[in-house]
């Protein structure tokens, strides 16, 4: 999915779009699934998706190039986080 006013999505005045509007977009798409999906998100979508994970059942959450949410980490610690280090060609699990 694309958030409103991103790529080929609904074009709106971006000065009037709120964080909650974006959360509504994600919830609308998630409502179409019969089972909890794996949510994959990039950048701001990763931050939004972590917020969604606080209240919506997901089978998994993959965030790419996003800040980690302290609230989500305290509820569900990222014990198996995979981190790709810039400039390296290998993954590590802390």
Rg over CA atoms, rounded to whole Å, is 15 Å
Distance between the termini: 31 Å
Separate helix tally: 3
Overall geometry comes to: globular
* Biggest pleated-sheet summary: 2 strands, parallel
Q: pLDDT average, as an integer?
A: 79
- What topology, given as strand order, has the largest sheet? 1-2
Total DSSP E strands = 4
Q: How much strand content do the residues show?
A: 5-15%
Task: Catalogue the unreliable spans.
Answer: none
The helix/strand series, from N terminus to C terminus, equals HEHEHEE
Helix content: 25-40%
Which structural class fits the helix and strand makeup?
alpha+beta
Structure report:
The model has no long low-confidence stretch (mean pLDDT 79). A two-stranded parallel sheet has the order 1-2. Strands 3-4 form a two-stranded antiparallel ribbon. α1 (19-30) packs across α2 (44-53). It is an alpha+beta fold and 94 residues long. It is built from three helices and four strands; from the N terminus they run αβαβαββ.
Question: How is this structure best summarized?
Answer:
By secondary structure, the chain is an alpha+beta fold. It contains three helices and four strands, in the order αβαβαββ.
Keywords:
94 residues; alpha+beta; two-stranded antiparallel sheet; 3 helices
Secondary structure elements and pairings:
Blueprint: H1 19-30, E1 38-42, H2 44-53, E2 60-64, H3 70-75, E3 83-84, E4 91-92
Parallel strand pairs: 1-2
Antiparallel strand pairs: 3-4
């Amino acid at each position: 999915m694309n958030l409103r006013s991103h790529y080929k999505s609904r074009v709106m005045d971006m000065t009037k779009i709120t964080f909650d509007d974006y959360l509504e977009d994600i919830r609308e798409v998630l409502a179409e699934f019969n089972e909890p999906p794996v949510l994959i998100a990039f950048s701001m979508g990763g931050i939004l998706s972590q917020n969604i994970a606080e209240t919506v059942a997901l089978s998994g959450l993959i965030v790419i190039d996003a800040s980690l949410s302290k609230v989500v980490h305290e509820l569900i610690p990222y014990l198996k986080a995979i981190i790709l280090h810039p400039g390296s060609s290998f993954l590590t699990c802390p």
